[in-house]
Structure to design on (84 residues):
């Protein structure tokens, strides 16, 4: 999933393209399959309840946020967190 997420931003050079890439990730049948969504929710719930694994989820979220920060100003960070 993380590799698919990063791949979605290859070649993106501006904010408009980033918005398009985000929309593609959200609506893409390749990424948002029922199985992937189920796994993401299960992983998030499991890692959140396991202190030793919480860092794994936080690292993934941090990498995702750093990707988005290339095109979105800091004031948009709280909103953009909902996207990953």
């Amino acid at each position: 999933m993380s590799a698919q997420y990063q791949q979605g931003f290859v070649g993106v050079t501006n904010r408009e393209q980033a918005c398009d890439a985000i929309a593609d990730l959200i609506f893409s049948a390749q990424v948002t399959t029922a199985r992937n969504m189920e796994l993401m929710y299960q992983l998030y719930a499991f890692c959140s309840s396991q202190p030793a694994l919480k860092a794994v989820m936080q690292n993934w979220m941090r990498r995702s946020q750093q990707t988005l920060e290339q095109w979105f100003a800091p004031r948009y960070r709280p909103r953009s967190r909902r996207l990953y």
